[in-house]
Amino acid sequence: MARAPRQADIAAVAGVSQTTVSLVLSGNTEGTRLSEPTRQRVLAAAEQLGYVPDPVATRLASARNHLLGVYTFASAFPIELDDFYYPILAGIEAEATALGQDLVLFTGTGGLDARTDAKTAIRRTRVADGCVFFGRHVPEEPIDWLLHGDFPLVYVGRRDELGGRIPFVGVDYVAASAAVVERLLELGHREIRYLRSVEDALSSTDREKGVLAAIRRARLPVRRVVVRAQSADVDAALLTKWRDEGVTAVVVEETDLGVLSRAALAAAEEAGLRLPEDLSLAVLGQPKGRPDVSGFEVPRRELGRRAVRLLVDQITGARRTDQQLLDCPQVPGATIGAV
Fold first, then answer.
1. What residues contact 143, with CB distance under 8 A and at least 6 apart?
2. Residues 294-322: pLDDT tens digits?
3. Beta strand 249-253 pairing with 226-228
4. How many domains does the chain have?
5. Do 117 and 146 touch, CB atoms closer than 8 A?
6. Sorted alphabetically, which PROSITE patterns does this protein's record hold (predicted)?
7. With a threshold of 0.90, does the pTM exceed it?
8. Is residue 1 part of a domain?
9. Which end of the chain, N or C, is more open, meaning fewer C-beta atoms within 10 Å of its C-beta?
10. Which domain holds residue 200?
11. What is the spatial distance between Cα 108 and Cα 125, in angstroms, rounded to a whole number?
């Protein structure tokens, strides 16, 4: 097996000293008199020989290696096109490519029994210049350790843990959810139920805040609006019971798994309820394969792109704000209508 080319080999081909090669490849030519033809000759020789710099040595020399980490808290890397996280990863890749950065995927496991939020697994991200994290929860101790060390990081999704110090690019679920309910109110609905996950994730809480804010602005009672449920609890009997009680609209949270919205749509079909003639149904998100469902769209690809952009801004010192919220385009759909 042939050995990898070294800087000495480049120096021999280009007819320059090894010091000159080192200066050109590191980009550290400030304060030196180096002609452009010489620099181009060194780069051409490096390309001809297929030279690839050692990332560890490069990091030690320049404190940057143009590697961005991506840390997922999922047990497996999402590869299906309709996976909730796939567009986020596609956006991350697209923006990293546009900015000339390479990506390193951290699987979050240090062995078969290791947890994805293990302290040692998260600390390994420091081999990159910075890291994008995404998941529904924050392992506070290791993330706090990274922040105290001034390690550049960005979360995908709004975070308020650790005293609000976590940089993030998230979605304004409060405003988007309120807009969906306000549309229902404009159509005459006064008896509304909101189905939300039993999990206390921040994205779930934000959606509920938006729903209740819109109800309160309409001076309607909120006591019975929110119903926490698992997908197994949502069936034809539940929707029929609500319909008999005078409920005219159901709003459903769309989580990353999408199980609650699927259950609600299936329950309406099983109960023989026509949407929106018999019951209006809106989803706070966009169910897979159902562009006809009213609600809003989560800009997941843009989330990935903005997260990378913010991370690179942190690394280069060009950042303007560490926390950003994106708007959600409303989806008119065909599943809500007038009472």
1. 122, 133, 153, 161, 162, 166
2. 999 999 999 999 999 999 999 988 766 78
3. unpaired
4. 3
5. no
6. HTH_LACI_2 (PS50932)
7. no
8. no
9. N
10. 173-298
11. 9
